[in-house]
Design goal:
Elements: H1 3-34, E1 40-44, H2 51-67, E2 71-75, H3 82-91, E3 98-103, H4 104-113, E4 125-134, E5 136-141, H5 149-158, E6 164-167, H6 173-185, E7 190-193, H7 197-206, E8 211-215, E9 228-233, E10 260-267, H8 272-287, H9 289-298, E11 301-302, H10 307-328
Parallel strand pairs: 1-2, 1-3, 6-7, 6-8
Antiparallel strand pairs: 3-10, 4-10, 4-11, 5-8, 5-9
Length: 333
C-alpha cells in the first residue's frame, strides 16, 4: 500500500471513530433533551407512612416542578424490600421514568442472607444519589455501671457474655452494627431480636436486656435517666437530630461507621445523561435547608451523593456486611 493510500485509510478510520463518538454523545444529549416524556414514578419498597415513604412524598412534587412532569410515589412492600428491588431491576424499562428508593438491607444485607434473589445490586441497578441516612445509637439500661463507650467496653471485657443486647431483628442493620461493635472491641454479648425499635427500647428500660442498638429517633426526646441512657452513635459523624450524643469513633474506634440508609436508583443501562440530570436535581433538593429541616422531622438526615459515590459506598457496605455476617454466623430466619 502506498503512503497516500495509507494516509487516506487512516483519515477515513479516524473520521469514522470521531463520527461514532459524536453520534454517541449526540444520542445522550438528545435523550436528555427529550426526557422526561411522561410522568415519573418512585417505587418505595415499604407500606405508606414510614419515614422513607413520607420523605419521598415530600420531594416528589418538588422534583416534578423541576422536571416539568408529574412524579408519583408507588408503594410495593414485601420481602424486606427485595420484592420492589427485583421488580425495578429486572422488569422496569431503562428509559429514565422509574426510580427506586431502596434501603441498605435489601442492597447490602439480604444478598448475603437470602438465596435466589432475582437481582445483583451492583450489576442490575444504576446509582443516582444517596437519599437519607438513619443514625443508629447504642443505649444501656440505667443500672449498667457505664456512662461512656470506653467505660462500657471495659465492662464488657471484664464480664464476657454476661450482657444481652436488643435490636429490631436478626440480620437488620442494627444487628450487624452490634456484631461489628463486638468484633472491633473484642467483646462478647448475646443478641436478642425484637420486632421493632419500640419493643427493643422498652426491653432496655425494663431491664429485660442491658443494651440495645436502635435507630436514634426511637430515643430522641425520651431522655429518662432513671431507666436508660444513650452511650454513643454508631456512625462516624454526630447527628443533627441529637448533636450532644458522641460517636464510637470519638471514643477511639476510628473508622467505625454503621448507619441505616436509603439510596435512589434506576434500572441498569439507563442513559448516563439522564442519571446525571436526575442527580443534579435531587442533590439540589436534598441540599436545600427546608428539605433538611423536614427530614429531621421524619427522623432521618439528607444524604446527597454523586452516582459514583453511591455506587462505591454500596459496594463497600456489601463487602463489609458480608464479612460481619460470615464472622458472626448470622442466618436468615
Amino acid at each position: 500500500m502506498s503512503l497516500p493510500t495509507r494516509r487516506l485509510t487512516l483519515q477515513r478510520g479516524m473520521s469514522s471513530l470521531v463520527a461514532g463518538l459524536l453520534a454517541a454523545a449526540g444520542f445522550s444529549a438528545a435523550a436528555q433533551e427529550r426526557w422526561p416524556t411522561r410522568p415519573l414514578r418512585i417505587v418505595v419498597p415499604f407500606a405508606p407512612g414510614g419515614s422513607a415513604d413520607v420523605a419521598a412524598r415530600f420531594l416528589a412534587p418538588k422534583l416534578a416542578e423541576r422536571l416539568g412532569q408529574q412524579v408519583v410515589v408507588e408503594n410495593r412492600p414485601g420481602a424486606g424490600g427485595t420484592l420492589a428491588v427485583g421488580q425495578v431491576a429486572k422488569a422496569a424499562a431503562p428509559d429514565g421514568h422509574t426510580l427506586l428508593l431502596a434501603a441498605a438491607g435489601a442492597l447490602t444485607i439480604s444478598p448475603h442472607l437470602m438465596t435466589g434473589l432475582p437481582y445483583d445490586p451492583l450489576q442490575d441497578l444504576a446509582p443516582v444519589s444517596g437519599f437519607a441516612r438513619i443514625p443508629l445509637v447504642l443505649i444501656a439500661n440505667a443500672a449498667v455501671p457505664a456512662q461512656t463507650a470506653p467505660q462500657l467496653i471495659e465492662l464488657l471485657r471484664r464480664q464476657p457474655g454476661r450482657m444481652n443486647y436488643a435490636t429490631t431483628g436478626n440480620g437488620s442493620a442494627m444487628h450487624l452494627g452490634g456484631e461489628s461493635f463486638k468484633a472491633v472491641t473484642e467483646t462478647s454479648m448475646t443478641h436478642i431480636p425484637y420486632k421493632g425499635s419500640a419493643p427493643a427500647v422498652a426491653a432496655v428500660m425494663s431491664g429485660e436486656v442491658e443494651l440495645a442498638v436502635v435507630d436514634l429517633t426511637s430515643v430522641v426526646g425520651r431522655a429518662d435517666g432513671n431507666r436508660f441512657k444513650t452511650i454513643a452513635l454508631l456512625g462516624k459523624d454526630r447527628s443533627a437530630l441529637a448533636p450532644s450524643v458522641p460517636t464510637l469513633a470519638e471514643a477511639g474506634l476510628a473508622g467505625f461507621d454503621v448507619n441505616g440508609w436509603f439510596g435512589l436508583f434506576m434500572p441498569a443501562r439507563t442513559d448516563a445523561a439522564i442519571v446525571q440530570r436526575l442527580n443534579a436535581e435531587i442533590t439540589a433538593l436534598l441540599g436545600a435547608e427546608d428539605t433538611k429541616e423536614r427530614f429531621k422531622g421524619f427522623g432521618i438526615e439528607a444524604m446527597p451523593t454523586s452516582p459514583a459515590q453511591l455506587g462505591e459506598f454500596m459496594a463497600t457496605e456489601l463487602r463489609n456486611f458480608g464479612a460481619v455476617i460470615r464472622r458472626a454466623g448470622i442466618r436468615a430466619e
